[in-house]
Design brief:
By secondary structure, this protein is of the alpha+beta class. The chain has one domain: Aspartate Aminotransferase, domain 1 (Alpha-Beta Complex). The chain has a six-stranded antiparallel β-sheet with strand order 1-2-3-4-6-5. α1 packs across α3. The longest helix is centred in the C-terminal third of the chain and has 16 residues. The protein starts with a helix and ends in a 5-residue tail after the last helix. InterPro entries: TfoX_N. This is TfoX/Sxy family protein. Pfam families: TfoX_N. It comes from Streptomyces montanus.
Length: 109
């Protein structure tokens, strides 16, 4: 599955030149990891965000979100945000910041 390169580039720009951030092909798209823990990823036109199990319900109450379910089994703690909900840079930035904060709370892999 191809992924939205424009969205991926916007994510790269937001994350900047942080040496703790790496990119890896995952889930048919590209993932951005902080010390081995996923921050966000781009799959198709959607943004995958790791928000943590405790924040899933609140994240799913926001516009353009849905459960991350690529295998028929929903992954609690992960959500997808529709690309159409990410046209504003501050909205995209908010999701990236949320995913990054969660990833930074985890021990390095």
């Amino acid at each position: 599955m191809a992924y939205d390169e424009g969205l991926a580039e916007r994510v790269r720009q937001r994350l900047g030149a942080d040496p703790d951030i790496t990119e890896k092909r995952m889930f048919g798209g590209i993932a951005f990891l902080h010390r081995g823990n996923m921050v966000v990823g781009v799959s198709g036109d959607d943004l995958m965000v790791r928000v943590g199990a405790d924040n899933t319900d609140a994240a799913l109450a926001r516009p353009g979100t849905r459960v991350f379910d690529m295998t028929g089994r929903p992954m609690r703690g992960w959500i997808l945000v529709a690309g159409t909900a990410l046209t504003e840079d501050d909205v995209l930035g908010g999701w990236i910041d949320e995913g990054r904060a969660f990833a930074e709370s985890l021990p390095p892999k």
